Every structure is written in C-alpha cells, then in structure tokens.
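This part of the workshop introduces the protein records we will be handling. Backbone structure tokens are a discrete shorthand for how the chain folds in space. Once this layout is familiar, the rest of the handout is easier to follow. The record below serves as our worked example for the rest of this section.
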Amino acid sequence: MPKRTDLKKIMIIGSGPIIIGQACEFDYSGTQACKALRKLGYEIVLVNSNPATIMTDPGIADKTYIEPLNAKRLTDIIAKERPDALLPNLGGQSGLNLCAELARAGILEKYGVEVIGVGIDAIERGEDRTSFKKTMDSLGIEMPRSKAAYSLEEAETIAMELGFPVVVRPAYTLGGTGGGRAYNVEEMRTIASRGIAASIVGQVLIEEYLEGWEELEVEVVRDSKNQMVAVCLIENVDPMGIHTGDSFCIAPMLTIGKE
C-alpha cells in the first residue's frame, strides 16, 4: 500500500504491565511499529504505563508518555499532542478497550483523530461475544454451542441447557481474565460471577467445552484491500483444554497435510 501523506503524527497505545513469560509480543510488535513508522517519516507519540519495556526506551518513539492507561489520561495527551491518527491494536486488550471507550465518548471525533490498523466496528465484532458469534454464523463458520449472559441466573440457565462442562468467557478482558471452565453449577456460579465483574460490559459467554480436540492456529495478515498472507501455521502438541500459552507448539504443522 502507498504511504499515507495526510498523516503526520501517530499515537500508539502500549499494553501496560506484562506478566513474565506472557504477552511479550505486544512489546515486540509495538517496538517494531515505532521503528517502522518513524523510518517512514511519521512522528510517533507512545503512551504506556509500563517503563520496563523495550518500547519505552529512549529513542524508540519521538515522545513517550509513561502514564496510567485510562481514558482521562489519554484524552489529556490527545488534547496536548493533537495526533492525526491512533494505532490501538499493538497494545493488546488494553489498547483496543481504550480506543473503543474514546470513540464512544466522542473524544476521537472531537479532536479529529483517525483510528488506523483496525476499525472500531471490528473491535466490537472481535470482543463482544454476541457480535463475534453473529459474524461467524454469517460467514458459515461452525462454532461450539454458546449463549451470552449478563447475570448469574442467565448463566445458570444456559449452562443447564448446554450441559456440563462449560467454558465461561468474559467479553473485553485480557488473556481470558475472569474466565474458566466449570464442571458443575457451583463452579459455574463462582466463575460467572467473577467474569461478569471483570468484563467492562458485564457480559460472559457460556460455551460448551471442547476438551481433547486438536488445536491448530493460522496467523494471517490482511490489509484494507483484502490482500492477505498466511504468516505461520501452528500446531499445538497438547489438546484443547490446555491454554496455548502453556502448550508446546510446532511450526509449521507436522500432522496436517498441505492440501
């Protein structure tokens, strides 16, 4: 794609605190984005609450704000720096949530900030469990049986319909925070209560648990012109039920044929 000449200053949202051994890809991708965009001549404003990252090192961005990642602080920085664009999808869940919150509050429109790298509607479709399910259904992609719940009563009713075990998946949370698998009503109530509290929209998805299935991953990069490339094909050695972050993975896939 040709270089955008209408953009001069770009704000990047970092991911904030990172657990050792997890989410290092946010720091790496954010650092590479800063370097690549600066090389193209853009002025980069980075906001991250975690000083112990590579991306907050001097020289990575033109200006670095080590501030709490919340809508108020970002609004203040936007008002001061007046960036042309906001790149939120290199900060994991934190960046996506904040971008959506700023859009809903009208801050991005007020200061004329364009969201690049991802659409606001795409954030909703990817993070809201009901919207995601509708999108997959419209594409004809089969998914585990599930329903969204906003209360313990709804969650219990859905779990009884699906049958145990079930997976509780809160919407708009990082790395499955607040979720888990439940083998009975008591466990489901505990996890669902935690998940509803953790979700910024008070929503959890109650989903049938596909324990023991083989897990395969395809990493794809696609641009706004629908040009795409499969970067990597990954096969998890461990079955579903063991989180990808805790599983041994093989790339490329060894037991799946090219066809």
Observations:
- The chain has three domains: 9-125, 144-208, 216-250.
- Residues 24-39 form the longest helix (16 residues).
